[in-house]
Design goal:
10 helices, globular, DUF554 domain-containing protein, DUF554, transmembrane helix, transmembrane, membrane
Length: 232
Amino acid sequence: MVLTGTLVNAGLIVIGALLGLLFHRIPERMKETVTAAIGLAVILLGIQMGMKSENFLIVIGSLVVGSALGEWWKLDELLNEVGYRLERRLGSQSSVAEGFVTATLIFVIGAMAIIGALDSGLRGDHDVLYTKGLIDGFTALVLSSTLGIGVMFSAVPVLLYQGGIALLAIQIMKFIPESLMDSFILEMTATGGVMIVAIGLNLVGITKIRVANLLPGILVVGLIVSIIHTIN
């Protein structure tokens, strides 16, 4: 089934988050240290992704234009409002919004989500998403133990995002040349890597970057890469 990989990925996030909630009595000092450790690991992952760019000017331009659009559209506020509504509905005292936004950005941004969904849709190969699911599940366990139940709800945007790509993969590849798709994935990975670094810095407590407002940068990457491909 086309959505098998996506369903497994989302399911592992839910399972990991639920297991993490069982360890919510972890001492505060330990939570701070664990969160910082995850943040440092996320920063390293982002740096590795960012280094994959073949033209860093595309990354810079995409982030500048994308962040301007994100601030204009107030994406960070919209995402946080979803979390706040969940928080009010559940009557939770934990930061549902922070957990939801942080986990969503970590799980959705990255080449594995796109490549894995494309593999599921085009070749029926779910190995990439299975691997991503294991990583996401472990990350969800740690995050939910420190950020609360909001982490679990990040499985929904993961399901919609990856599932949508998988279902549309065949149609996408019919209209987009392979060379263009390869270039997009490469530069999207690097641009997403910068966002991942920002997430890590937020987790460590160094910054308070509104990372959600950077997300339009992914769309800008596609536009710039398409223009360059057309010119060449």
